[in-house]
């Protein structure tokens, strides 16, 4: 994961899975339950309209 983050120049990584709790796996890496994904994306401004 660290190599992928470095290669892609990512500030944060979410690994999405179908069930369960969301957990922090490492600094800047989070395992996110699909049911929590909309909340996580909203924190980063995903879905907002920009003019």
Overall helicity:
25-40%
What's the total count of β strands? 3
**Biggest sheet: strands, sense, closure?**
3 strands, mixed
How many domains? 1
List SSEs in N-to-C order.
Answer: HEEEH
Estimate the global geometry from the Cα principal axes: flat
Give the assembly state of these chains: single chain
The amount of beta strand, in percent, is 25-35%
Strand order of the largest sheet: 1-3-2
**What is the terminal-to-terminal distance?**
34 Å
Stretches with pLDDT under 50, minimum 5 residues: none
Total of helices: 2
Average residue pLDDT = 86
The gyration radius over C-alpha positions equals 12 Å
Q: What is the SS-derived class?
A: alpha+beta
Summarize the structure.
The chain has 51 residues and is α+β, with helices and mostly antiparallel strands. The chain has helices at residues 2-8, 37-43, and strands at residues 13-17, 23-26, 29-33. The chain has one domain (2-43).
Features:
alpha+beta, 51 residues, 3-stranded mixed beta sheet, 2 helices
What does this 3D model show about the protein?
The mean pLDDT is 86. By secondary structure, this protein is an alpha+beta fold. It has helices at 2-8, 37-43; strands at residues 13-17, 23-26, 29-33. It is built from two helices and three strands. It has one domain. The N and C termini lie far apart (34 Å). A three-stranded mixed sheet has the order 1-3-2, with no helix packed on it. 27% of the residues lie in helices and 27% in strands.
């Amino acid at each position: 994961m660290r190599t992928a983050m470095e290669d892609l120049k990512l500030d944060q990584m979410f690994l999405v899975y179908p069930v369960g709790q969301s957990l922090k796996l490492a600094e800047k890496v989070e395992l996110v339950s699909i049911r929590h994904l909309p909340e996580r994306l909203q924190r980063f401004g995903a879905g907002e309209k920009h003019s």
